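Let us work through a complete example step by step.
Step 1: write down the sequence.
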Amino acid sequence: MSVELSTEAMKRLRQLHPDGKGIFTSDLSVNEFLLVRQAGFRPLGLVLGVSIYHVGTQFRRWYANQELDVLSQAMYRARELAMTRMQAEAEVLGADGIVGVRLKVELKEWGTHVAEFSAIGTAVKAEDGGNWRNHAGKPFTSDLSGQDFWTLLQAGYAPSGMVMGTCVYHVAHQNLGAVVKNLGRNAELPAFTQGLYTARELAMERMQAEAAALKAEGIVGVQLLQHNHSWSGHVTEFFALGTAVRPIRDDHTIPTPQLVLGLDS
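Step 2: predict the structure and record it as tokens.
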């Protein structure tokens, strides 16, 4: 996907660190900064991507569980735009990757269905060279903390990219008979259980598909989040997010935890 950055963004990026001069910016804590440096990566600057997106509406059946695929696509597309623009800024800086990425959604007062999707992180470059970019040839992205990033590298793994899956789902309303039947009783609501289970599974499955496309070995730090945003009480989004990882070498072995953490055995 071709991304054109604004004049203001290009001006800010030129003032950063791609040529080894200037002052870098970073949202890493002091401890995270030191560990990223110890891992052999130099911060170049904060990079960000933003998308103001109008999320439309979709008809749903009152008494049926169903995915609202139009809304699922909108939520995914808006986040993808923000992530892609953040990666484009990292490309301008000549970065090998982006660490400590935060991906946020904030509803705006401009309209009921308008939200700001933003991605921000610290672009970094390996000091010893090497090929740290992912299978798609893009700077890797990771939402791991500086400490977890350092530990991952010590264990012989590298991040390939943040992967995500989303599912906006309508959970069926109970009919009057079911409401009366369960009145005052402890009872599982099978339709609700199955609906929420299915929605989570769809989000997880889509996240795993993104990791497979990056030729990753697995996903670490997975978060499975639920958001209602501005929809009705029976419509919810399940959002799965994690960092896909790959072994640095084909013949790598995982060291003992004591060695990874630098502890005496």
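Step 3: interpret the result. Residues 52 and 116 are 4 Å apart (CA to CA).
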